[in-house]
From TrEMBL, chain A:
GO terms for molecular function: adenosylcobinamide kinase activity; nucleotide binding. Gene3D superfamilies: P-loop containing nucleotide triphosphate hydrolases (3.40.50.300). This is Uncharacterized protein. Coiled coil: none annotated. InterPro entries: CobU/CobP (IPR003203), P-loop_NTPase (IPR027417). One of its GO terms (biological process) is cobalamin biosynthetic process. Signal peptide: none annotated.
Amino acid sequence: MQLFIGGAYAGKRTAVRERFDSPFWCSAYDGKGLDEWRSAIGTEHCLVLEGWEEWLKTELASEPDDDRVRERMRGELESIRAQEDVHGLQVVLIMLEMGRGIVPLDVGDRRLRDLAGWLAQDAATHCEHVWYVWNGLARPLV
Amino acid sequence: METTNMIAFVSGGARSGKSARAEALARRWHQARGGERYYLATARPTDGEMVGRIARHREARGPGWTTLEEPVDLVAALDRVAPGSTLLLDCLTLWASQVLYASDLDERQALTMLDTMLSWARARNIALVVVSNDLNEEVPPRDAEVKRYVAFLQRAHRRVVHEAELAIQVVAGLPMYWKGNEWTGKAQ
């Protein structure tokens, strides 16, 4: 599993496209739910999961407890990682860095920002390679 | 040090030390190359605080700079720079906001202007250091206009970085080299 993380419009998608040949995209921006990654199992060689902040928003809307949201996402990451091994699937996660501004006034934004940070940390522990994308360039952190 | 025709991009957060880093780089390039040394200010003195801020920057730079002030038209500004000189552009963030909110240019025209400035700088042997701010690593703005601004600024950043031999992210006054190395001037 690999993680590409960076700010908005930093060039994350391009960085992924440059490194992976015709992957299957499961994107929240296309209205896909997180659980739809399962449809790629057994049929695709490379799966890209993007739009995690949108999936987090969905979780946060129905679960008031942040720890539970984190646990649920952690569980999902573990399932993805396990399937990757079993099916020889290459999984690429694209996540948005959003922790570097001022503390948001809106409680929903604060929760989202916290969960996004924790999710990125949890994801990184499962990844062999982590890339930080900045202004169209990518550098390996791990 | 290889200093011919180089373009550098220097960015970072507020008060990260990016201007000082960019100025030092421009000074070194100027010393090695000769010619004139120019400072292109995109800031427009709109209020008292801005006037003070511009004065502080000017004082910190010290003497030896020819200051050009041009909020939008980068190509016109470049036309005032003698070939073989060194030019420090500070900063792209303000340029981007003036393009979107105080000019008749659309985004495509503005990016073409930016491309033209980069290629003319090369053609005229002008070493160029471009300063900007990283504004895209916070919770995505809800406001559509702010979103458009961040997206436009990022497009501008990616173009400059793509062209540049040297791309530096400044954190706590220290450089992180994304492209090249300012001491050798060599691409990594």
